[in-house]
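[step 3/7] inverse_fold.run input=structure_tokens len=202
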């Protein structure tokens, strides 16, 4: 975990790494959606609340950095938020992270992680302001997300460490010489102990 926290610019590396990973996944899913326009009209079930009508003007990286600056939560919360997002997607395989929903997924998964992990946290009204949404929407997204993960919020040390390993491999990738984009992302719970990689739900 230490490698994911150290950053000369005071933004933990986990924030940059997670934003890079999700940016790549969202771009890939955006391009897939363009090739299959009929998919846009398909029912989104649990993801309907997270889907925006337009792409937010703020980048994923800037959005996560904004959350970090104002939410004052521990770096471990970003790893746990990533785990929660992966659990949501595993339970709803028809849902894909794209540019229309990634921001709402992020603010909601971080909120859930902070409430579960940190001793002190801001209320939903504060997170709504940080996320650029209304309090009513923040409350609705939180409930929808919790039902979406089946209220499965506990994270064992083994699972936490396996997701840290994924993020560390992403850090190595980002620091390496530019290469063609890759799309590994998440682990299923069953595969976590062996650290096998799995693509974030497409």
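[step 3/7] decode complete -> sequence:
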């Amino acid at each position: 975990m230490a490698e994911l926290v150290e950053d000369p610019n005071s933004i933990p590396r986990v924030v940059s790494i997670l934003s890079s990973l999700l940016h790549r996944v969202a771009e890939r899913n955006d391009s897939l959606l363009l090739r299959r326009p009929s998919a846009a009209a398909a029912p989104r079930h649990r993801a309907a609340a997270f889907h925006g009508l337009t792409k937010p003007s703020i980048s994923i990286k800037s959005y996560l950095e904004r959350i970090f600056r104002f939410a004052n939560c521990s770096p471990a919360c970003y790893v746990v938020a990533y785990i929660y997002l992966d659990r949501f997607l595993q339970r709803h395989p028809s849902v894909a992270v794209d540019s229309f929903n990634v921001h709402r997924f992020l603010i909601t998964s971080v909120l859930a992680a902070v409430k579960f992990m940190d001793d002190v946290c801001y209320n939903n009204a504060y997170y709504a302001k940080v996320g650029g949404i209304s309090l009513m929407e923040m409350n609705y997204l939180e409930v929808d997300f919790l039902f979406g993960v089946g209220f499965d919020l506990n994270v064992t040390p083994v699972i936490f460490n396996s997701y840290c390993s994924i993020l560390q491999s992403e850090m190595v990738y980002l620091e390496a010489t530019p290469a063609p984009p890759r799309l590994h992302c998440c682990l299923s719970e069953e595969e976590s102990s062996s650290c096998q990689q799995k693509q974030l739900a497409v």
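[step 4/7] annotate
Residues 2-37+45-194 form a domain with the Cyclin A; domain 1 fold (CATH 1.10.472.10).
Residues 39-43, 179-202 have pLDDT under 50 and may be disordered.
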